[in-house]
Amino acid sequence: MAHIKSALKRVCVVQPILSNYSLPVFLELAQHCEVDLFFSLAPKESGFGEISLPSVPNIRYFPVATWKPFGDRIGMFQRGLVGYILRQRPDAIFLSANLREFSFWCAAFCGWMLGILVYAHGHGPFKKKTISVLYRVMMQALLRMLTSYICYAPIVQQSFVDYGFDPGKLSVAHNSLINLDMVRPEEKKGDEKGILFVGRLRKNNQLQLLIRVITRIRDTDGLPLSLHVIGTGEEAARLREEARNCPWIVFYGGVYDFSRIRDVSLNCFLGCYPGNAGLSVEHMMSLSLAVITHDDLQAHAGPEPSFIRNGASGLLYDHADPEPSLYQAIRSLACDPEKLAKMQKEAFAEYCNLVTPSLAERFWQILRESGKQHRDSTVGEVAPYVESSAGARTEGGHS
Predict the structure, then answer these.
(1) In angstroms, rounded to a whole number, what is the distance separating the alpha carbons of residues 350 and 312?
(2) Is the Cα torsion angle 263, 267, 269, 273 positive or negative in sign?
(3) 3-class state of residue 255 by DSSP
(4) Which residue among 4, 148, 162, 242 is the one 20 to 30 A from 267 at the CA level?
């Protein structure tokens, strides 16, 4: 590994797919350093929506094609990434951690060999109930190459420690989103009857379960609840067809305007993602909605549901006994305005804690501090290959 550069001026950020949630984070990061943003465009049916790329100082966009010789499960490769690293030599590489992507490994190895600070951001072994020998070897090799693995949440960091990985290579930046169109608790009137779902309409979101439960509450308890569904995806057409005889279900399609989502949420008293949730949990918290999802944290799309304090900022229903448990959770809040109001306040407070400081600020702090520690630890280290001041490559010497 070559010597680490002494200054952090340009960061190469690599995202398999750029979302409306993540783009503002990197735009804010560009206030601290120059950012080269590599990403591939999401398929139209994915539910991510189209991205508008604003022209702002300190950021360059590199939309690239992803080669998928073995499909969507393994071996994906973002073309042009390695060539960029070899030519541009950024001061740091910030990777979305996906061990199934070939270009992820190539970028990490290339950065390590060139003495570039390398970071991976992800959920590590958090979602795994057990890990194989191969996974352990791969993760150990990755941590050796990385300056730091940035965990989505403290529960992710703990999963690394529980499996015996080096905690010295771990840092935490609470995965969060920026919502400038929040709803404060005092804006809730207390007479809302709606339940909000925000997220991609994909398998495992369990919207059918939510519809069955709301139907039961309407029929059995006489509560005129409504369901507001914001999102699109491969399951959208089927869900609309199944709900055609339910006028109390409103489908808004793919809405990416946060102010419009805010307006819809003003009709709702809680947010519910009955299936495997991710950042949608935080979005609903930012709207002063108590949030309900299931309690099998490892099954979720990400660790964000771990930010829910069960009974305080939301409720975790029993994943093993879903329909009765979800029914009781929703009914308990619909019938207890005082408990609901307290939970809405706690949900909003939890969101504020997650975004203070912002995710971009957390990233920048980690990049600066861990980069400095790494540089200090490599002072005097002899590298197999280094780059001289004239740009020539020499073996076994110092630049």
Answers:
(1) 10
(2) negative
(3) coil
(4) 242
Q: Please state whether the peptide bond connecting residue 357 to the residue before it is cis, i.e. omega within 30 degrees of 0.
A: yes
- Cα gap 155→323, rounded to integer Å: 27
Ordered by where they begin, the domains of the chain are: 10-178+357-395 (3.40.50.2000), 185-354 (3.40.50.2000)
pLDDT in tens, 38-66: 998 766 555 555 778 999 999 999 998 88
H-type alpha helices, 61-206: 81-88, 102-113, 133-145, 154-162
- CA distance linking residue 176 with residue 285, whole number of Å: 11
Cα atoms in the Cβ-side hemisphere of radius 13 Å centred on 191: 1
Tell the burial category of 106 from Cβ atoms under 10 Å away from its Cβ (0-12, 13-18, 19+).
Answer: middle
List, as own/partner pairs, every contact residues 393-398 make where C-beta atoms lie below 8 angstroms and the sequence separation is at least 24, other chains included: 398/3
What's residue 220's pLDDT?
Answer: 96
Name residue 151's beta-bridge partners.
Answer: 122, 172
Length of the chain in residues, anyone? 399
DSSP run (H or E) holding 315? strand 314-317
Higher-scoring residue by pLDDT: 79, 281: 281
CA atoms within 13 A on the CB side of 71: 1
- Convert the pLDDT of each residue in 372-386 to its tens digit: 776 666 554 433 333
Pairing of strands 226-230, 170-172: unpaired
The pLDDT tens digits of the residues spanning 304-332 come to 999 999 999 999 999 999 999 999 999 99
List CB contacts of 271: < 8 A, sequence separation 6 or more.
195, 196, 197, 198, 265, 280, 281, 283, 284, 285, 287, 289, 290, 291, 292
Q: What confidence category does residue 72 fall into, taking pLDDT thresholds of 50, 70 and 90?
A: confident
End-to-end CA distance of the chain: 13
Mutual orientation of helices 337-354 and 322-334 as an angle, nearest 10°?
Answer: 100
Kindly state the tokens that stand for 251: 């489908």
Three-class SS state of 121:
strand
